[in-house]
């Protein structure tokens, strides 16, 4: 499930923990997991008071970081420990003097939680960055019923090791991911100053610098096995590059180019907020208008939050509404835009209004549909949105190849979706799952090309003006979308469908998009009149799009060469983790586990699963698509069944019983769904 959760219209987080465990368990094949409630060794009867505000702090060795408001900070021995406000979830920063990474890991666990015994899966290197060297991660297996993630990274600076232990309940970790990112974003070695490009002038992207960028794309493709990438670059109002690499579809010779369509997923959000901004300019809506005043049927599961939500809040990821994607990813065949809006009425916030960054695709969809409704109140919600986008965004910008129409999108010059299979071989993805975005399409349903998205990026750089100098909208309405609404991490803020990153001193505005087999990014540096578009047609393309942002800065400002090492290490870790997961699976699924299953299971929201046995193979038919299933025996004695269809691997069902009924339990980080036999 973790892999799926990352892909579906996701934003890559500033720091994504790798599942790890103590060195004492390195030899354990399947040791029992520590109790989720097990407290660290340093825990005392008198807990530290919650921090009143974000607080600059240091570890025992003097390494700097920001401790988030509401968390409790305590120190004992070498361990600096942050406990989340919910309790029972910790982030530990342990400084040790040790001979090597393995010894540092053992010493850190001895200081933090010596009784932890999660079994190890795999160890992988991590690229040097921000003054840290000798970085390694050690991945371990937790059981799904623990509802817990444990991760460790070991790194070195100033002749000492710092061990970062992430030990959190799944719901807390997701809800507070931005605060974890805040800690990690400024965790720097004592005395170290992060590289800054503030005040520097960007170099012209001449032939040698362009070769650095295109060479990076080719090396990134080789490392990640992504079949095809299209790249676009603009500088000072001129297209510097528009072209493609690799193939549009595995097994076929066609190369992508600047007019090849890819699904751009969540990049759609920024374009939808541009449509909203044109309505603001016409005074048909205001950013402060309440959603219910514009669409009286708008409703969330919490009445108080419903009344508070303004237009700007729908798309700011700041209302406390968590991810709840499984409900539209698994049961979309008969879903309509109106049905997607009705689904919002079942959703509850899990953090305070404006308190935390929590990314909600259904909320973003509501923003687009409300805008469409205001523009065309007599039309069905989806048709009104489609027409408003064509009239106010795609048409004026001459984005002639951009569409929400999947049938049109898949005609002609189009890239296919790809993903590794369970053995790590790149193949066609099960992209029928991408049809699930159609009912929530303002959140990520657009298809586009490098050349079309470059037109959009150039308009952003021109602060709302079209190529002929005429304004599409006012500068004020355009830039309001970049104003910070909620923190994503240190020096990273989310506005309205746009993220602004000032980690390296100069603002970088961007948004990414991820659906099955498609991963993309659009990037611009408003102070330097430079923009870029990266479109990919395979998992794990999110690595290519994310690390390219660093490479672009390196080329523009002669930055430290970090991007190539990052993409190499990330790709190796991904495939090593995939191989480690494969070793834990039985495929075909274990016959004893299969024998326990009912013929079908039902959930009132997720619908029905038909259990099919085809010889030795087990297959789950979800209605919209199907997958062969593998089994895994978990450390706590439970058994899981996992999808193995490329692009949708890792959807995990825990086999169980509820009274005399057989059950399958499916979870995302903050929700649990129990499917009961029919």
UniProtKB/TrEMBL annotation:
One of its GO terms (molecular function) is hydrolase activity. It is an enzyme of class 3 (hydrolase). It comes from the Bacteria. Residues 216-543 form the Beta-lactamase-related domain. Its EC number is 3.1.1.103. It holds the Pfam family Beta-lactamase. Residues 1-43 form the signal peptide. Keywords: Hydrolase, Signal. This is Serine hydrolase domain-containing protein. It comes from Ideonella lacteola. The lineage of its organism: Bacteria, Pseudomonadati, Pseudomonadota, Betaproteobacteria, Burkholderiales.
